[in-house]
Amino acid sequence: MLEIIFISTLNGVLYGMLLFLMASGLTVIFSMMGVLNFAHASFYMLGAFFGYEISRHVGFWPGLLIAPLAVAVIGMGVERYGLRQVHKHGHVAELLFTFGLTFILEEIVQMIWGKLAVNYEVPALLDFPAFTIFATEYPAFKLFMLVTSIAIFAALLLVVKRTRIGLVVQAALTHPEMVGMLGHNVGRVFMLVFGVGAGLAAVAGVIAGPALVTQANMAAALGPILFVIVVVGGLGSLSGAFVASLLIGLIQTFAVAFNVSLSDLFGEVPGSGASAEYLSDIWYVTVAQIGPILPYLLLVAILIFRPRGLMGKRET
Max Cα separation, the chain? Predict the structure, then answer.
C-alpha cells in the first residue's frame, strides 16, 4: 500500500506539473488577451513532434532547446498575423480562429508524420532507474521530467513577480492603455507572451514525448483537460492553475492505482429484483473506468458551488 501511494504521488505530481506547463501559458494568454485559445494543446503536439524530428538528427538535448523556440516563433506569428487581425471582430471570431487552427495543425502533422505513434526514444543518458523503492524502479527520465517542470515553474514565477519584464506584463494585463502611454509596445508584449505560452506548451511536449505516446491526436486528447484546469483554478489565476493541475494530476493517477468498485468495498449488489438489476451497472464499475471523467465531474462541481474557480478573483 505504501508503495502504491508513494509511486502514485510521484506520478501524479509529474503529470500535474506537465499539465501546468501547458495551462500556465493558456492562463496568462487569457488574462492578457481575453482569449481562450483552443489551439493551445496543438503547440504541445508540435513541441513533441519537433523534438522527435530534431532528436533523430542531432539528439534529444538540442531538440529540448530548439523545438520550444521554434514553436514559440510559430506562436508569435499566430498572434501577430492571425489573432490580432480577427480581434476587431470580437471573441467569437477569435474562438473560431483558434478552433480551426487546431484542425489545421493536426492535419499538417498527419501529412508529415502520419497518424500512427512515432518512436520518440528516451535519451540514453537518462535511460536507467533513478532509484528503487519497495522493489519498484523509478525511471531517471521521469525524475528529469519532474525536476525540469518544477524548475520552469520556479523560473516563471520569479520572472513574473521579481523582474521588470514581469512588472510590464502584469501591468499590461489590467491597464494596457497606461502601459502604452508609458512608452511600451503593448502589441509586442502580447505577441511575446503568446509566444512564451506556446513555448511552454512545447517544452511539455518535448519532455513528455518519450515517456507518453507521441501521435497526431495527442492534442485532441489533452486539450479539454487544459480548459478544465483553467476553469477549476480560476480564469486568469496562475496560482489557481498550479493548484488545479496538481489536483487533477493526482486524481487521475490515484484513480488508476486504486482500481476498486463498490462491489469490492461492500460485496454483492444490495436488494433483489429490478432494483438490483438497475444498480448492478453502477455497482461493478471501477474507479479506473470512470477516471477519465473525474476532472469533468470536478469541473461541474466547481461551476455549481464556486463558479469563479478555486482562486479566481471575480465571478465569470
Answer: 76
1-55 confidence digits (pLDDT tens): 677 788 888 889 989 988 888 888 788 777 666 777 888 999 999 999 999 999 9
Q: Can you give the pTM of this predicted structure?
A: 0.86
DSSP string, 242-254: HHHHHHHHHHHHH
H-state helical runs in the chain:
2-33, 40-58, 60-78, 84-86, 91-113, 140-162, 164-174, 176-181, 186-208, 218-233, 238-257, 262-266, 274-283, 287-290, 294-305
Grid cell, residue 233, equals 483554478
- Concatenated DSSP letters of 108-132: HHHHHH-SSPP--PPPGGG-SEEEE
Q: What is the DSSP letter of 83?
A: I
Residue 90 Cα to chain centre, angstroms: 26
Lookup: cell for 220: 485532441
The answer to whether the beta carbons of residues 152 and 21 sit under 8 Å apart is yes
Of the CA atoms within 13 Å of residue 54, those in its CB half-sphere come to 20
- Provide CATH code, domain 2-305: 1.10.3470
- C-alpha distances out from residue 196 to 76, 192, 281, Å: 8, 6, 47
Q: Go through 9-30 and write b for each residue having 16 or more CB atoms within 10 A of its CB, e for each that does not.
A: ebbbbbbbbbbbbbbbbbbbbb
For 116-171, what is each residue's pLDDT tens digit?
A: 899 998 998 988 888 887 777 888 998 898 888 888 888 887 887 777 777 777 67
Residues in Cβ contact with 283 at an 8 Å cutoff, skipping those fewer than 6 apart: 261, 262, 263, 269
Domain boundaries, the chain: 2-305
Do residues 211 and 142 touch, judged by C-beta distance below 8 A? Answer: yes
Residue 233 backbone phi and psi in degrees, to 5: -70, -30
Residues in the chain: 316
Contacts for 294 with CB less than 8 Å, ≥ 6 apart = 251, 252, 255
Dihedral sign (CA 249, 23, 227, 229): positive
Q: Is 135 helix (H, G, I), strand (E, B) or coil?
A: coil
